[in-house]
Design a protein that fits this description.
Pfam families: GT87. This is DUF2029 domain-containing protein. The protein has 505 residues and is an all-alpha fold. It has one domain.
């Protein structure tokens, strides 16, 4: 991690207070004393924004754990329906037994009991699951399942703190934007459903390294993240176009080589020693049918006709390719070079929206990217509300399908509405990000004349290969020093008189 000196904000560039530029943040800050005024005290040197955000993230994670207590106490073990009606389902305790960890089977090397299959997770996630099983104490099977979930929750809490801290430190002058991550309700609700937070934490750390102009460290972390989940490799796609536009081919090549090397270092031993077990994740992803949360499921349910899985695989791949091409065109033709976080959010959103399955914890992939791409509370909360509705919708739908003739829960039409809300919310946030790219003067991150605070070597770089534009300054027609700047250190026009108790944000 960078030292305190490296991350210190210059005195002439104060930390941006979101309560001075975001109406929703200002209204919410009334709970802690209101927006920061001219004479606001920002706390001791020990209570820095990054530490506050980390503590808030841990607190929200703990609330998410508390929400799982009905399942922890009894619902995981006393029938399938109750864990859905209480919306507290988690894969973790079920896979402790179902994937052989309770029987000390070695992932990828040992076949599952009574089956001819292997663990269907990427290698680094499998290692994470195995380490948690080593730390799980003995006892009755129910106790061991509970403890396995608890051990994993503790390890995932560390990942959540890493995500919050890395997000806070990506934009040196905007650490408070990471409160979007720390306070995201969907983040807390889905954090312990599966092991996605490992890949999200590695991706957040990679974004931090890129923002510090460390392409090799970025590449290594992206490679490790891809060894835990497939989606992080997609970030190399928009980065290619951004580096192309800025002429940073050397830095991009270093990042790609670092990613390839790190991925191979993790995967190659298992690939050579247990090839059948290693390939299970990839064959499972191809052979998996249309599943919960995807628009493909809505199509099959509404038409009553199945779609061949090969057709879905081909169509989904083509849609992702078209989406990446569109993002590439946007990167090359936008009036100003887009920020890396903006395009990273868009490419992952395209992958999520076109996939043949959308598990509720996939929202974790987008939360830190959304906080960096468009740190506006209104739009973020609109999207989060849609995701929370989907979170409740999938469990109520499963309760409906599992409850037999009693039909307790959400019928098929209601679940389709929940899927539509998830898709609409994600598309809405994507539209806001695209608008910021096409109208860079409306991008709040750039309101003070900044270029790309998360861009690392791209930040402030001149355009070299911009399509349809004359290569030159990334700041547009006027250099940053000559254009208007917003003084976020000054109080708003309706600020309270000096001396009013005020929050630090």
């Amino acid at each position: 991690m960078p030292s305190a000196e490296e991350t210190a904000v210059p005195q002439d560039r104060p930390v941006v207070a979101p309560t001075r530029q975001d109406e929703i943040a200002a209204a919410g800050s009334e709970l802690i004393g209101g927006p920061a005024g001219r004479w606001a005290w920002h706390g001791s040197s020990r209570l820095t924004p990054v530490r506050v955000i980390a503590l808030v993230a841990i607190g929200m994670f703990a609330l998410g754990m508390a929400q799982k207590m009905p399942c922890y106490d009894w619902a995981w073990f006393r029938g399938a329906t109750s864990q859905y009606t209480h919306a507290c389902y988690s894969d973790i305790p079920h896979l402790y037994v179902g994937r052989g960890f309770a029987d000390n089977l070695v992932p990828y090397f040992d076949r599952l009991n009574g089956d001819m299959q292997y663990l269907e997770y990427p290698v680094l996630t499998g290692l994470f699951m195995e380490v948690a099983s080593w730390l799980t104490p003995g006892g009755s099977m129910q106790y061991r399942e509970q403890m396995y979930w608890m051990v994993n929750a503790g390890m995932l809490m560390i990942c959540a703190a890493v995500i919050a801290v890395c997000t806070a430190r990506v934009h040196r002058r905007r650490p408070w934007d990471a409160l979007l991550v720390a306070l995201a309700p969907a983040f807390a609700l889905t954090a312990t459903i599966n092991w996605d937070l490992l890949a999200v934490a590695l991706t957040a750390a990679a974004m931090l390294m890129w923002s510090r102009s460390r392409p090799l460290a970025f590449g290594i972390l992206i490679g490790l993240a891809t060894a835990a989940k497939l989606y992080p490799v997609l970030l190399l796609c928009p980065l290619l176009f951004l580096c192309w536009r800025a002429g940073k081919f050397r830095e991009y090549a270093i990042a790609v080589l670092g990613a390839a090397g790190a991925w191979l270092a993790v995967n190659l031993p298992v690939m050579l020693l247990a090839p059948q077990g290693w390939e299970k994740f990839y064959t499972f992803s191809q052979e998996r049918g249309i599943d919960f949360g995807s628009f493909w499921l809505v199509i099959t349910q509404r038409t009553g006709r199945p779609i061949n899985i090969e057709t879905v695989n081909t169509a989904a791949t083509l849609l992702v390719a078209l989406g990446c091409a569109g993002i590439g065109a946007l990167a090359m033709m936008a009036p100003r070079r887009p920020r890396f976080a903006q395009l990273a959010f868009l490419v992952v959103a395209v992958f999520i929206l076109t996939n043949k399955v959308y598990s509720p914890q996939y929202v974790l992939w987008l939360v830190p990217l959304a906080a960096l791409a468009r740190p506006r509370w209104r739009d973020f909360l609109v999207w989060q509300a849609c995701e929370v509705m989907y979170f409740l919708g999938i469990w109520m739908y499963l309760a409906y399908t599992m409850s037999g003739d009693s039909h307790k829960g959400l019928p098929t039409e209601g679940y389709q509405l929940a899927i539509a809300l998830h898709i609409a919310g994600t598309l809405y946030l994507c539209a806001m990000v695209v608008r910021d790219i096409l109208l860079p003067e409306r991008d709040g991150v750039r309101a003070d004349g900044s270029d790309d605070p998360s861009g690392g070597v791209l930040d402030g770089a001149e355009d070299v290969h911009a399509l349809g534009l004359t290569a030159g300054s990334p700041y547009g027609d006027e250099p940053p020093g000559d254009g208007p700047r917003v003084d976020w250190g000054a109080p708003p026009p309706d600020a309270e008189p000096a001396g009013r108790p005020s929050g630090a944000v």
